[in-house]
Specification:
Number of strands: 7
CATH architecture: 3-Layer(aba) Sandwich
Shape: globular
Order of helices and strands: EEHEHEHEHHHHHEHEHH
Distance between the termini: 26 Å
Structural class: alpha/beta
Number of domains: 1
Length: about 260
């Protein structure tokens, strides 16, 4: 089973109860759970890992309008399906927004949270326009500009295979699900939630992220009581893909502090 209906992956330690808990990774828009491969392989082995595809990938749940709280419900439905009561939640971009909302709504089930390269309020006009573009022309015309937001030119030169993997993910995204996710990003606003988040929060920025610049993450940190901020150098929007080793280190250390 899964929250969005697709591809739940669970990597468990050898013991029945992982020493440092379970981390659930939440994807950005237009990616699959394989975007976390580099991070998961570098995590310490005392964590269980859960990851899953969200509704923008398509299917019945992605073919009707959905909101942020639906994605939060999907996440906890996945955990329920695995009999996991509490987890560390780490998300990037849209997934970071889900992590923030989960921390606000479900603190009793959230041990800690990590929000990467996201904002408490995305640009309404940008996402309404993009949703309309996808409904009219599909995802394909967006691919070059999205790739340039996801990865720096240097990374694209150094890691063409990784970039091509993510180009294929983007190209295979269901346009209906993508468009409804654009609507969600245009309307979602968790700024009022921030001061109420009591879950320990780590915020990670990429200093070359043009989609959600550092100022977006600084606003989050300034308004969440128990938040700290890390900035990754020479890193664009998909920080976990560009810097998997450092992301794994930051996420696992944060989770261990709050297990």
């Amino acid at each position: 089973m899964s929250g969005g209906g697709y591809n739940v992956s669970v990597e468990r330690t050898s013991g029945p109860h992982p020493a440092s808990g379970t981390i659930v990774f939440v994807n950005s828009l237009a990616t699959t759970s394989s975007m976390w491969d580099g991070v998961v392989t570098r995590l310490p082995k005392d964590f269980d890992v859960v990851r899953f595809d969200q509704r923008d990938r398509g299917g019945p749940l992605g073919h009707s309008p959905f909101g942020l709280d639906d994605l939060v419900s999907d996440l906890f439905a996945v955990l329920d399906g695995e009999n996991i009561e509490k987890a560390h939640i780490a998300g990037v971009s849209l997934g970071g927004l889900v992590a923030l909302r989960s921390a606000a709504l479900m603190p009793h089930r959230t041990k800690s949270a990590v929000a990467m390269c996201c904002a408490a309020r995305f640009s309404r006009d940008v996402w309404l326009e993009r949703g309309q573009e996808v409904r009219t022309h599909g995802v394909t015309p967006l691919i070059p500009q999205v790739i340039d937001r996801w990865f720096t030119p240097d990374f694209q030169q150094r890691q063409p295979f990784v970039v091509d993997q993510h180009r294929q993910m983007l190209a295979s995204t269901d346009p209906t699900g993508y468009a409804f996710a654009c609507d969600l990003l245009a309307e979602s606003d968790v700024r009022a939630d921030l001061s109420d988040i009591e879950v320990p929060l780590l915020v990670i920025s990429g200093d070359a992220d043009s989609a959600n610049p550092i100022a977006d993450q600084q606003l989050i940190v300034q308004n969440v009581p128990f938040a700290r901020h890390e900035v990754l150098n020479n890193t664009a929007h998909l920080a976990p893909v560009a810097e998997p080793e450092l992301t794994a280190k930051l996420v696992s250390e944060h989770a261990r502090l709050h297990k």
